[in-house]
Design goal:
41 residues, mainly alpha, 2 helices, 68% helix, elongated
């Protein structure tokens, strides 16, 4: 099973943070963005 490196995880989290900053205007919208980016473990 492939695993993410720390660098890949940091890049993934930064991408989500940028999406939240650009698009979310409420905590609920932020949660929806984050939940939409879940990956299968």
């Amino acid at each position: 099973m492939d695993e993410m490196t720390s660098q890949e995880l940091n890049q993934f989290l930064e991408a989500i943070a940028e999406l939240v900053e650009l698009k979310a205007t409420t905590p609920q919208e932020a949660a929806e963005i984050i939940r939409g980016k879940k990956i299968k473990a």
